[in-house]
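Run folding on both entries below.
>entry_1
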Amino acid sequence: MKITAAVARQAHQDFSIEQVELDEPKDHEVLVRIEGVGLCHTDLVARDRLIPIPLPAVLGHEGAGVVEKIGKAVTKVAVGDHVLMSFNSCGECPRCKEHLPPYCTQFPQLNYVGARPDGSSTLKQNDQAVSGYFFGQSSFASHALANERNIVKVAQDLPIEILGPLGCGLQTGAGGVMRSLACPQGSTIAIFGGGPVGLAAVMGAVIQQCATIILVEPMASRRELALELGAHHVIDPAQGNITEHIRNILPQGVDFAFESSGRGEVVEAALASLGSHGLLGLVGVPPSVETTLNVNLVSLITFGHRIHGIIEGDSDLDTFLPELIQHYQAGKFPFDKLIKKYALSEINQAIQDQAQGRCIKAVLIPEHAHH
């Protein structure tokens, strides 16, 4: 079928709105009419070739919408259901069997290749293949094909157009604190970076009832929002040594640190702020593939520090996403405060606004969804 999509044609260049041809759903696939899709840093990382998906490509991996068609083997959803989409996983490997699909051994092949695992293309333009199937969806478009494994059915009375970011950025931040680090009640945490992931981590820390929640973030507006969301302290990294600031608040250091910027020097400051047996969770995408870390082995071994690379907040979609939605309905996960809506055709403006801090989380609304 003919669909409208935002196409990435060249690294570091604007997306263009174009018509492309979307394949019919195969056995376990679901055709979703997109009502809203989050704009995530990972989409730009893919456009700019840090994730080597071939261009031209339709990216987008925080989609939500309405099921329009299902493959003949699909049992999880029916036509007309409201769904949110997330990452794809195989369901068969040891990690998937442990309910840890973000660590699926097939993760790169199922999410970053630009085609189905069998090599067939989901998107074409004038008989030329266009990379699709990004995170098993490619939802910067009016419609997307997903698998039943990477969609979750949601209640129809929820604001479907803003739910998409739960499928990546928000579950990464909240799940990072609630599941990967599993911060116990009364523990202390420093969160580095106050974008959507860092602010979702703040909300997750509030849900976990952490006793001290510190956010390190350069933008004043984001520090203010963090306090509103329940952070106890905010630190502007421009105001001197971050680690000293944290140790002024907690002389013993923090039990947990959560790093969402991906910058080496910030990761090192996070490590230095840990207390004894402290655990550092890393979710930030580094600026380049060559980014390395200077770790002082003596302090690591002396204090028993631990470092945990986190993917998608350890979320197993079918239980964790409904849990986050329940918290949202109860007023305990007010992620809607982070969101600003744009038309899909305004994607380049949204990218600029997000980069300059004019909005925290952009959600793109395809034209057909403007009610």
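>entry_2
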Amino acid sequence: MRKLLLAVGGSLILVTPLSQADVVGLGASVSYWDSDLSGKAATNNDVVDVENDLNLDSDSNANASLYLEHPVPVLPNVRLSYTLVEQSGRGEVGLVGFDGVTGDVQSDLDLEQLDLTLYYEVLDNWVNLDLGLTARDLAGDLTVQEVNGLATSETSVDAVIPMAYLSARFDLPFTGVSVGAEGNFISFDGDSLHDFNAYGQYEIALVQFRAGYRQMAIDYEDGDDRLDIEIGGPFVSAGVAF
């Protein structure tokens, strides 16, 4: 990961700062993400399908972001983003079981991530392009418990992961309408994470409305535990920009 961090950081130095904001800008948004889950979890060499075996389904999720842009050369802009996905379900893992748990099970997945992104505006006109680095504090916990017994299994991953950041937006003149995409990604030593979304945006006065599709994939190993899951679905958001 260090090599990737240095490589991306070096690339950013070469392209920055081609463009800076003329004034200080501040924005915030909240969103609803109607996400579906698929993939597998593993612990102690046992593997379970989180969709077909555990029947995990989205109960709630929280998504919010805050950014600050400024006209100071060299210094990067700053974005904070928070995502919380909570899923639960009742399934069946059979007699073979999963990590000592057998039969009917109640399962809960909590996936929480906090992103700190430092980025530069490479282009800032009707085409907007940002490049940067994200430090993602990722915490995922899967609990599987027998419905008619005491056996419980816990699978956990916890790490701070550097990721490349890319955001592009294309404004349609005189309409307040734009389309864009943004994402974070990394692949290193058998682990990989990506988090992308594509959207359409309508802006009126200081208010921004977005609708699009977001997909996040996590393939990460932490000791004897591993999560290899995908979460995807449509989202809507509302925000303000000053």
